Amino acid sequence: MTAENWTVRLDGSTLPDRRLIGGKAWSIALMRAMDLPVPPAFVITTQACLAYLEQGAFPAGLEAEIDAGLAWLDAATGRQFGGAERPLLLSVRSGAAISMPGMMDTVLNLGIDDAAEAALAAESGLPDFARDTHRRFLELYASIVLKLPVELDHGAAPQSWREQVAAPATPREALLGAVRAVFESWNTRRAKRYRDHNNIPHDMGTAVTIQAMVFGNLDEHSGTGVLFSRNPLTGEPLPYGEYLPRAQGEDVVSGKFTPLGLDAMAAMEPEAHAALLAACARLEAEHRDIQDIEFTVQSGVLYLLQARSAKRAPDAAVRAAVDMVGEGLIDVGQALARVSPEQVQALLLPRLGSGALDAAAVAAQGEGACPGVACGVVVTDPDEAERRARTGEAVVLVRSTTSPDDIHGMIAAVAVVTEQGGSTSHAAVVSRALGRPCVVGVGKGPQPGAIVTVDGESGRVYAGQLPVEMPDEAADARLARLIDWARARSTVQVLRPADAGGVEGCVDVDAQLSDGEADGLKSLLHGAVAAKGAALANPDTARLARAQGVRTIVTEPVLPALLAMIEEVA
């Protein structure tokens, strides 16, 4: 990599390699090429990140390229970074090639200082907006870059804020500090845990997107939100999302505020809402997948900040995959690749049985953020959740709101409940990625030590352990369709016990596991032609059987094992 290639300008003229610029910047480049309303931006590449992590310092030439990128943004916006008139403020955001929602760091409103605040106040005629923007920057910078989370007194003067935060003296110094923080966020504990859980390589690095700010907190005709092109909980082919007036993006994902529905946006900003739906339709058609779109409205004008393939609940993954084949957007192979064995396994987990709610007591009520039912003991500390889950205990993680630092507890928990936030908060997005039942915005949550049943579809948390029942994959038309498609592509026969009368010589996997000899399972299956047992419905056990040469699997349900059999060819 030469000193001239540490940065790339996202002007829409080219579509650079996603591995080099990360998914966020790649989506900006594509949207600008599509002539969609996107604030101008440039990106520092993943190669620059890897060089920084290796050397412990910026690679030679990077700072000069950053300065050139800033000059380009000045010219593109007619503003000036660090200027006392028409100041340009920036967002500095991480972006790996593979989406890691909520895992790394963002700094907004970078470039504001006393002079810039005065200029923004004079330009907008809204001194409260300028002061609010100044405070937001200092709070984020303290938390993300200085690792000193603070909540500043809204009524205090900026001088006291800066003394409390000890922010850099100049906007340029602040920008370089933010870039370092984003680079370093690649190796945080939470990011490593997320990559381990999702089998994402650790040597990819993150890009840093530097983009001109637009202000959802500007005035009564401003706001921010998230839109999904289809419902990420159910897969229903209707736009789904949230809008928070007079706010910035961190307000939505933080879970500290409960946003409004898109119908409220339609009533408040009809032109921006219509433009958003039109852009949403174009982006889904372009990507042929459910889109997760971050946007800001500034004084009634829509700006798109990012579009990516949406994390989705298991129900949504199945419905969208099957529906999109019917709509001609994708083929059968793509549909099968978009539904993981683990998603189907989660979909076929127990659900509330008939009559379960007759005498059930609701311990908390919120918004369902990821469907599914799970029972466990309430814990409120992610470290405790991880520790107790290791002993085989089913734990429900209850937090005021989650942050990326809670990821290890969310992975360990059977369900997640938050007291604040909406269906696009960090807790909701990450729970959908993990396939965990999730309820958000319950207010006062259940107490530690309580046994609860979490219903991520209804948004209710019930006291005690309620009776549940198993779904029937054969009775679900979409699952039955996936079974037919997968069977046509699988080189391993997967049968239900009722259909396996002619299969002889099956190794009984369940018997081996019940004897406490799981370590011997690999040798047991090696050379076996057929294997049977409920444990083979677990995708990991099914993969082990395939690797050992098993040609027939007898288990129920069959779809998780079938999908595991075709992963290499779908």
TrEMBL record:
GO molecular function annotation: ATP binding; kinase activity; pyruvate, phosphate dikinase activity
Organism encoding this protein: Novosphingobium colocasiae
One Pfam family from the record: PEP-utilizers
Identification of the protein by name: Pyruvate, phosphate dikinase
SUPFAM superfamilies the UniProt entry points to: Glutathione synthetase ATP-binding domain-like (SSF56059), Phosphohistidine domain (SSF52009)
NCBIfam families: PRK05878.1
PROSITE patterns: PEP_ENZYMES_PHOS_SITE
Domain called PEP-utilising enzyme mobile: residue spans: 393-459
Domain Pyruvate phosphate dikinase AMP/ATP-binding: 55-259
TM stretches of this protein: none
InterPro entries according to UniProt: ATP_grasp_subdomain_1 (IPR013815), PEP-util_enz_mobile_dom (IPR008279), PEP_util_AS (IPR018274), Phosphohistidine_dom_sf (IPR036637), PPDK_AMP/ATP-bd (IPR002192), Pyruvate_phosphate_dikinase (IPR010121)
